[in-house]
Amino acid sequence: MTFDRAGLARRAGDVSAAGGVRAVVLDDGAERGIRVLEFRTGGGLAFDVLIDRAMDLGAAEFRGNGFGWRSATGFRHPGLHEYADEGGLSMLRSFSGLLLTAGLDHTLFTAEVDASQYRYPHRPTVWNGLHGRVANIPARLHGYGEHWIDDERCVLWAEGEVRQAAVFGEHLRLTRRIEADLGGTEIRLIDTVRNAGFDPTPHMYLYHVNVGWPFLDDGARCELPLERTLWQSDSVAEQGVSNAEMPAPQKGFVEQVYEHELKPDAAGKVRPRLVNERLGVFFELEYDAARFPAFFQWLHLREGAYAVGFEPSTHHVQGEPAAREDGSMTFLEPGEERRYETVFRVGEL
């Protein structure tokens, strides 16, 4: 569906008749106080941006069918988050939604690493929990709304900054812009991570993109431009569940995790997909292989927490200690930044 400014104005006194962005605040339970931006494109796509959760993506649906994973944790307020709780696995008590961002200086499993670059004798090392700190840091909202381009195209947008900083530690800033066209069926994510401090600072980045029911269901299919599988968890051999054809929810399922090497197209883009022929819909992630050289597939097909994850990553599955040892760890110099442009796309088959 397409809209032009004059034609829409003749039919309605406000863009919101067709779609738009609305600011709300959640007000009950563990979600109380979370600021949310509700996007409706008018093309069947609706999704929530969780301002107080690093501007990650929460609930999402296409033409009445949900695809943003919903776990039992809900969208828990970051004020309830204890980073070092449960041996560093406390993220699992705040894990829900279409996108959880991991980073900015650490991803993957817990690790204690050298912090001598910060020159603070009382903390020669730093300990990091699962997938880092950023997902539970509220953003400072720069703005949001609807912007017309040449009166022919309306872009729904939001932008904010997430600051991860410590005295005698890292000072990293994530500027995140989210866009969707009025009438459109894709979400564009433009992230810039900058070292705003004055010491070389580690940088790791990963998108934990989680698709849930009903897009994910018995018979749904993962379509990956697969070159080869580099690593898989022991549970793959123990359970033998296919990573291509999705079963119904499984009793006692143990997560299956893979690191795949995926083939980019001529433009350097990679597009893993989840296809549901019964509903006649697909979900597609598009990312830049040069920015995210690693990719993980996460199958969490357990009853009550049924999800499949696509995870583009800057680093391989062995994590931060291995990356530091083999020289592949990224350090941002003072003022240096990295830009990531990613598309979340849905549609009908």
Task: Please provide a written account of the structure.
There is one protein chain. The protein has 349 residues and is mainly beta. It has a single domain, classed as Beta-galactosidase, Chain A, domain 5 (Distorted Sandwich), CATH 2.70.98. The protein is built from three helices and 24 strands. The protein has helices at residues 5-11, 234-239, 320-326; strands at residues 20-25, 35-40, 45-50, 56-62, 65-66, 99-102, 111-114, 125-128, 140-149, 153-165, 171-181, 186-195, 201-202, 206-212, 221-223, 226-232, 256-262, 269-270, 273-276, 281-288, 294-300, 307-313, 331-332, 337-348. The strands form five sheets. Strands 9, 10, 11, 12, 15, 18, 19, 20 and 24 form a nine-stranded antiparallel β-sheet that branches. Strands 6-14-22-21-17-16 form a six-stranded antiparallel β-sheet. The radius of gyration is 20 Å and the shape is globular. The chain starts with a helix and ends with a strand.
